[in-house]
Design brief:
Layout (H helix, E strand, L loop, with lengths): L1 H6 L4 E4 L8 H10 L8 E4 L5 H15 L7 E2 L3 H7 L8
Parallel strand pairs: 1-2, 2-3
Length: 92
């Protein structure tokens, strides 16, 4: 079911997932299911602070999902990211 839902997604947001190299099942699932998703349609929310950690974090995602642009990575944590989301307009 996860594959079916992911393979038809128009955008995907990863929140708090470090994409470890040892999680081969998840890496294969995401690589296959999101193969046709443009890298710009991926948002990654993490809490890395050190430059070395940040580069390693981005590399793990890019190794599986392709050239995700830098602006698609939000490294201020989930709470900050949620607070920055646009507020939906109320229904008329």
């Amino acid at each position: 079911m996860a594959f079916e839902h992911l393979s038809t997604a128009e955008a995907v947001t990863f929140i708090g997932y470090s994409f470890p190299a040892t999680d081969t099942a998840a890496r294969a699932l995401f690589a296959e299911a999101l193969a046709d998703l443009p890298p710009e349609a991926v948002t990654v929310v993490g809490f890395e602070t050190d430059e070395v950690e940040i580069e390693a974090f981005k590399t793990r995602y890019r190794d599986v999902l392709g050239p995700i642009p830098d602006e698609s990575f939000f490294l201020g944590g989930a709470q900050d990211w949620v607070q920055r989301l646009p507020t939906p307009a109320p229904d008329p």
